[in-house]
Design brief:
By secondary structure, the chain is of the alpha/beta class. The chain folds into 2 domains: 121 residues, Rossmann fold (3-Layer(aba) Sandwich); 99 residues, 3-Layer(aba) Sandwich (Rossmann fold). It contains 9 helices and 17 strands. It is globular, with a radius of gyration of 19 Å. It starts with a strand and ends with a helix.
Length: 287
């Protein structure tokens, strides 16, 4: 292992390389005090945990590194998601998870809107108590059973009549047990195109999503002190970096070879979640 320190405009940058992984980018050296971890494609795919994911979480928790799971998953409620992950063997608590559904609910309440919810029934639990009679807004999540002509046309007409369009996320695609699958973004874009309006996005990669998740930590943390790890270079990593956090691209899930060069430079690049955990713990324990 070797370390090289460069000085540029009075800021310090670092480059680290070892046998198992590389941090290929130059970035400001800032100690990581907490980690936000994407779930789908980073920790699990479907009902299966990815290799090294469980070990990574155990290591981080044993080292007392604060963790928050941040996910754009909108196909099922937080309770359902946690139940599925526990069944797969991951020890996870409800207060450790911040979802785009949570962000959407917060937004709906803050704006006092009555949504037409284009969601799967498994996700509706997270919107209990929300008024949906005489809707004045369309809220779109990943809802394969809802993306048919009649329902999309209902949403179209509501928006054309003056209703707002809210996207829980605009993910392009995600990794499922059957391979890559189309995400919510295609259907949101269809409504944007046909109604000549722009959706308000509440999930990743929006800056506000990361800052809301940051508030969930008990510690008084600055954005730059938190590392976001995920398999989506644009929504997870570059979104986090634009929001002032550090970003680590994990080469699992939807990751495609060359993503780190094709779309933008991540602060860190790791083969899997366990390598990320080893790096964080190594510098977390430094004085």
């Amino acid at each position: 292992m070797f370390y090289m320190i460069l000085t540029l405009n009075t800021h310090f940058f670092h480059y680290q390389e070892c046998e198992s992984f590389q941090i290929k980018r130059c970035q400001r050296k800032m100690k990581i005090k907490a980690v936000m971890i994407d779930l789908s494609g980073t920790v699990h795919v479907g009902t299966n945990l990815l290799p090294g994911a469980k070990e990574a979480i155990v290591k981080l928790k044993s080292a007392k590194v604060p963790i928050k799971y941040v996910t754009n998953t909108s196909k099922e409620s937080k309770t359902s998601l946690i139940r599925r992950l526990k069944s797969a063997g991951l020890h996870i608590d409800k207060d450790e998870v911040f979802t785009s559904l949570s962000a959407a609910r917060n937004y709906i309440i803050s704006q006092n809107i009555r949504p037409l919810l284009l969601l799967e029934k498994e996700a509706l639990e997270d919107f209990e108590g929300i008024e949906t009679e005489s809707p004045n807004s369309v809220v779109v999540g990943l809802a394969p059973t809802q993306f048919h002509y009649e329902k999309m046309n209902e949403a179209f007409n509501l928006i054309k009549s003056g209703g707002s369009l809210v996207a829980i996320n605009k993910s392009r695609y995600y990794k499922s047990e059957k391979g890559l699958s189309i995400g919510t973004g295609a259907f949101v874009s269809a409504l944007e195109f046909s109604t000549d309006c722009k959706a308000y996005v509440v999930g990743k990669p929006e800056k506000n999503f990361f800052h809301l998740a940051l508030k969930d930590f008990m510690n008084d943390l600055k954005p730059i002190e938190v590392l976001v790890a995920g398999d989506d270079i644009r929504d997870d990593v570059l979104g986090a970096q634009k929001a002032g956090l550090q970003g680590a691209l994990i080469k699992t899930g939807k990751y495609q070879e060359g993503d780190e060069d094709r779309f933008g430079e991540p602060n860190y690049l790791f083969e899997n979640l366990e390598e990320m955990a080893d790096y964080v713990i190594d510098q977390f324990s430094d004085p």
